[in-house]
Amino acid sequence: MAKKLPKTDVVIVGVGWAGGIIAAELTKSGLNVVGLERGRERKTEDYFMVHDELRYGVRYDLMQDLSKETVTFRSSEKIRALPMRQYGSFLLGDGLGGSGVHWNGQTFRFLPYDFEIRSKTIERYGKNKIPDGMTIQDWGITYDQIEPYYDKFEKTAGISGEPNPLGGKRSSPYPTPPMKKSPAMQMFVDSAKKLNLHPYMQPSANLSEQYTNPDGISRAACQYCGYCERFGCEYGAKADPVVTVIPVAKKSGKFEIRTHSQVRRILHNGSKATGVLYTDVTTGEEIEQPADIVVVTSYVFNNVRLLLMSGIGKPYNPATGTGVIGRNYAYQVIKGNAVGFFEKQQFNNFAGAGALGVNLDDYNGDNFDHSDLKFLHGGSISISQTGQRPILNNPIPGGTATWGAEFKTNSLKYANRVISVGGQGSSMSFKHHYLDLDPTYKDAYGDPLMRLTFDFEEQDRELAVFLASKSAEILKEMGADRVDPLKELGPYDIVTYQSTHNTGGVIMGSKPETSAVNTFSQMWDYDNLFVVGASSFPQNAGYNPTGTVGALAYRAAEGILTYRQKGGSLV
């Protein structure tokens, strides 16, 4: 028998970026909020003087314990899914702040085209441009409608940047100036402009200067130490939930965080959520937390899994294309890159920051003509200087022996003579890419694991090679003596790291037949249940998702406050 606690106004499942933002906004408005986080407490002091690449970069200290909970994977329904036993393609964060602690800090706004992709594609190219089986759809919200929430998130996080010349209109400039431009980045800018492209400094959550946000949270400037991705920031210079929004919620006195709390079910009665059931992982005790409003803000896989295990929403059926929970899983095409080797020039590749780089969007979205191309959308192309840490970086030209004298010679020679230019490609949704509960494998609590069915399509292969060829052109203009571009994209590989940009499964839209939540992240069938995160994306754009997740969280918070006053559906 589960222990039943007193009811609270709002219970939040997962306290990362989305959960932290919503907790801050709701408590500022006087609501009592309980935040349930399955991992441990985190604070900036945990990372003081801990530049430990082995612990964090190789042994994944900030990540979820795969021996207790993981996902299963298969490339098609013809193959039996097997559990992911070691980290590879993506990294699942764990603990207070979630993946918002170990991210790089690249904070883009999606293009206006991204939010109306289906209608805009048909308008320009006709319906036949969308191949059979591709299930892209409009979000139900436009860029102009979501822009104010982008602006709010950027001001909270103190994003450093400059306007994207090919992006949507902005209501205000970035709150802090762009980061420093390294010599390699300047070479990229000069070469891109010679090719009539439009480079701009990447928008960065690594602060370019000391900053105090609208909530009064002050943070120091980035030190360019190169320990961002897979690491917590010892300076608090990298915006994460633990140093931005969570302190605001705590200060209100109306936010209670319970760590080590594994939420296993959303409780519901009829068309209302009534609370959640969770296990205290330190004692094994089952606890029921009633609430007037339930907000699910955990990682993509857990958002979908929790709804399916709770019997909320109609599960997606790939055979018929009906149902919405698990629909339109999408990833990212990261492998459209080229590597340039320089014989005479050297670069300080060891220095950097997670979001230090220059980007261009000439080949992103629908900024270029797709009439004669075998793919839709595109991707951003960038040069990034994240800091080449010694254990995980050993660049050598293609064709070099992987051991022996030649390997050693080239490893030393090219350690600081290599520049990578790469494309971050979009991921279009397909009917046969989806998430569901695995019928065989279970987690440490006896609940079914999330099953991922996905593979790269012809769309992805064409896009990757296209972006790699454009990246190679820029490197040649930069003066690289040798350029090794991607020649072919093989099958999706869950073993090799690519990105943690999993999306979809609880997608946003304008009607309940093809979406799970409305544009305020409110479930169509349960008006007091909100599901927020990249699980809302109907397909993925050519950017990192966090900026859009932050914007959706601010819009959801606004919707929750409206619902609290008026009730009912928000659209």
Instruction: Give the tally of β-strands.
Output: 22
Segments where pLDDT lies below 50 for 5+ residues?
none
| CATH architectural label | 3-Layer(bba) Sandwich
CATH topology: FAD/NAD(P)-binding domain
Report Rg: 23 Å
Distance between the termini: 39 Å
Helix content: 10-25%
Query: Helices and strands: which structural class?
Result: alpha/beta
Q: Oligomeric form of this entry? A: single chain
* Domains (count): 1
Per CATH, the superfamily is FAD/NAD(P)-binding domain
Strand % is: 15-25%
Number of helices, counting only DSSP H or I runs of 4 residues or more: 12
Main β sheet profile: 8 strands, mixed
Q: Quick one: overall form? A: globular
Mean of all residue-level pLDDT scores: 96
According to CATH, what is the class? Answer: Alpha Beta
Pfam family, one: GMC_oxred_N
Organism: Paenibacillus solisilvae
InterPro entries: FAD/NAD-bd_sf (IPR036188), GMC_OxRdtase_N (IPR000172), GMC_OxRtase_C (IPR007867)
Domain Glucose-methanol-choline oxidoreductase N-terminal: 221-330
